[in-house]
Design brief:
two-stranded antiparallel ribbon; about 475 residues; mainly alpha; 4 strands
Length: about 475
């Protein structure tokens, strides 16, 4: 069936990977529902309810072959997605029909599946995030000693190295990884809490046996690969869980946005460029242009994710008592789309960082145009050693710096501060002497050492502990 006559999400058509799209697919969702129904039935059987292995086996035989047509037709009649799929599963499993979803409420499959899916999606985000960190670490190492002009307020400040600047990008993604790992480590299943979270239906099923009811959640959790269930809940797990998860995504988006801004500024300066393919078109009107379109796309998607984080926060804040249903439609949009967008962002990050092009000569030119101003303290100290008066020299160098700055800004000529100082007898320094002090490496402080320590002490342990996740390459659709 053609999809050209209806809306399709750009997240699936243009940005997100097939792997992330599968995690939020109908197949993933409804096969997980069926796995949860099997886990519930097995647990109830093991705790003594009259459920047979034959019924369990029948359910297992139909985990993946979901009869969507039956479920969809049923939902048009009953207007309830969970009961429609209970019915459809029962059509395929006539022997087990009577025990599917026994004692459970809709959130047993809905909420537990949401947690399972978010957990799987976080695994994929982590894998890509670790690879972004690995690629940025390579870039930092390669450029650890390359002096570059650093900026505060986007005004020339003291020199740094390009590698040191890359560690600033890196460190933000490291913080995101820490947040991701923490939040993921706290994820628990809802379990089987019943209509208002009291497990009343299960206490009835087990004829008042509290011990068996207490075993229900831990057994289901283990069968589904989790350590535990949330200890208390209403009908749903707290929607604050969604808030915490999507906030992690928003943090990654913020880090990526900052990186993309810097790359766009550097590309304007012609110092560093994102990759540009041989047949890529930069502008429909200006054939010579090399627009930073991937970095711009990172920024665009990142803004979407940062704003999207408001959705689960507001949903969490507005839930009534043990549950309301005004969360459902919002969750179906905000959580999947947050993950799909971050997936696209990280693929773009991998592509851009892996192909960054550095232009050392341009970097050097920009740095040398400003370095005489930044070297004035060293020049003044050399002049004092040659017999000059520190206070007088300070005033002279201030005046000469103003004159040189006026030459650059008003007349559009090159910085001639060194020539002005060499021509001033108060300094007793030749132009040759002054040029010897213009080695940029003298002014980058501890930048190179900081890069080396950071990569060794912070990044190396992260990459070593996540070695099995490395080696991801990104494919950009458009």
């Amino acid at each position: 069936m053609s999809t050209t006559d209806r809306y399709t999400s750009p997240l699936s058509q243009r940005y997100a990977s097939r792997e992330m799209q599968y995690i939020f697919s109908q197949d993933m969702k409804f096969t997980t529902w069926r796995k949860l129904w099997i886990a519930l039935a097995e647990t109830e059987m093991e705790l003594g309810l009259p459920i047979t292995q034959e019924q369990i086996d029948e359910m297992k035989n139909h985990v993946s072959d979901i009869n969507y047509d039956v479920a969809q037709a049923r939902e048009k009649e009953v207007r309830h997605d969970v009961m429609s799929h209970v019915y459809a599963y029962g059509v395929q499993c006539p022997k087990a029909k009577g025990i599917i979803h026994l004692g459970a409420t809709s959130c047993y499959v809905g909420d537990n599946t949401d947690i399972i899916i978010m957990n799987e999606a976080l695994k994929l985000v982590k894998k890509k995030l670790v690879n972004v960190i690995a690629e940025l670490a390579k870039f930092a190492k390669e450029n650890k000693a390359l002096p570059t002009l650093a900026f505060t307020h986007f005004q020339p400040a003291q020199p740094t190295t390009l590698g040191k600047r890359a560690t600033l990008w890196l460190n933000e993604f490291v913080m995101d990884l820490e947040d991701l790992e923490y939040v993921q480590s706290t994820l628990k299943l809802l379990g089987s809490k019943g209509t208002t979270g009291t497990q009343a239906s299960f206490l009835e099923l087990f004829e008042g046996d509290q011990e068996k009811v207490d075993q229900l959640d831990p057994m289901i959790a283990r069968k589904m690969g989790f350590q535990a269930c949330y200890p208390v809940s209403g009908q749903t797990y707290s929607r604050k869980v969604d808030t915490r998860v999507v906030n992690v995504l928003a943090g990654i988006a913020a880090s990526a946005h900052k990186f993309s801004n810097d790359i766009r500024l550097l590309q304007h300066l012609k110092e560093v460029e994102e990759p540009f393919e041989k047949s890529q078109i930069g502008s429909s009107a200006m054939a010579y242009k090399r627009n930073p379109m991937r970095s711009e796309r990172i920024a665009s998607l990142s803004r979407y994710v940062m704003i999207d984080a408001l959705n689960p926060a507001i949903t969490s804040a507005t839930q009534w008592f043990e549950r309301t249903l005004d969360d459902s439609a919002n969750k179906r949009l905000s959580v999947p789309e947050g993950f799909l967008a971050v997936d696209g962002i990280l693929d773009l990050m991998l592509n851009v960082v892996d192909g960054l092009v550095v232009y050392p000569k341009v970097i050097e030119k920009h740095l040398m145009a400003e370095l005489p101003f930044m070297a004035t303290e060293n020049i003044m100290m050399d002049a004092v050693k040659a017999g000059g008066d520190r206070q007088e020299l300070h005033e002279r160098i201030r005046e000469l710096s103003m004159e040189a700055g006026r030459t650059v800004k008003v007349e559009g000529r090159d910085n001639d501060l060194l020539e002005r100082i060499a021509g001033d007898p108060a300094f007793k320094l030749s132009l040759e002497d002054l040029k010897k002090s213009m080695d940029p490496a003298r002014y980058t402080g501890c930048a190179q050492a900081q890069v080396e320590k950071y990569l060794k002490n912070i990044i190396r342990p992260i990459l070593d502990s996540n070695r099995e996740l490395l080696g991801v390459s990104a494919e950009i659709n458009v």
